[in-house]
Amino acid sequence: MKKFNHPQIEEAVRMILEAIGEDPNREGLIDTPKRVAKMYEEVFSGLDKNPEEYFETIFGEEHEELVLVKDIPFFSMCEHHLVPFFGKAHVAYIPRNGKVTGLSKLARAVETVAARPQLQERITSTVANVMMEKLEPYGVMVILEAEHMCMTMRGIKKPGAKTVTSAVRGAFANDSQARAEVLSLIKE
């Protein structure tokens, strides 16, 4: 990815402020373009990262039962409106041939994929696909629950509405009992 362009973002924010009828030189707004540029660099930090890197380190452990990390908080920016959506991710997998990864790596993969202009559906499937490719488990299940500010503060204006997406791969796709186990553990 090319270097993050702070001056270009600052100029764009000034133009937006002017376009809505504000004075970008007003005391409360004078540093807003700089603050927005710094914020964008942070919230879009996943653009130059590959979530596959978190699954390079694999541990040998003879565990071929469910591994679930639930309630992983995440934040992202809707690519359609550039407003936030946020919620919790639940990531489950069944290791194969002793290939397990650090639990924090599951959270880091979600965080990295979310730190881009994004769709919730894409975060869900990207994390599941990367895990299947890099860990070669029996199965992967990723569920995201999120509130989208584009539905809360504009448009339909329905605060509290949650969108739930899932990506089900391998054993979880073929075994309704395995799927049900994950769902019941998430609800606990």
From TrEMBL:
GO terms for biological process: one-carbon metabolic process; tetrahydrobiopterin biosynthetic process; tetrahydrofolate biosynthetic process. It catalyses: GTP + H2O = 7,8-dihydroneopterin 3'-triphosphate + formate + H(+). GO terms for molecular function: GTP binding; GTP cyclohydrolase I activity; zinc ion binding. It comes from the Bacteria. Residues 9-186 form the GTP cyclohydrolase I domain. CDD domains: GTP_cyclohydro1. The keyword Zinc applies. Pathway: Cofactor biosynthesis; 7,8-dihydroneopterin triphosphate biosynthesis; 7,8-dihydroneopterin triphosphate from GTP: step 1/1. The keyword tRNA-binding does not apply. Its EC number is 3.5.4.16. Keywords: GTP-binding, Hydrolase, Metal-binding, Nucleotide-binding, One-carbon metabolism, Zinc. Zn(2+) binds at residues 78, 81, 150. It holds the Pfam family GTP_cyclohydroI. GO terms for cellular component: cytoplasm. Homopolymer. Belongs to the GTP cyclohydrolase I family. PANTHER family: GTP CYCLOHYDROLASE 1, GTP CYCLOHYDROLASE I. This is GTP cyclohydrolase 1.
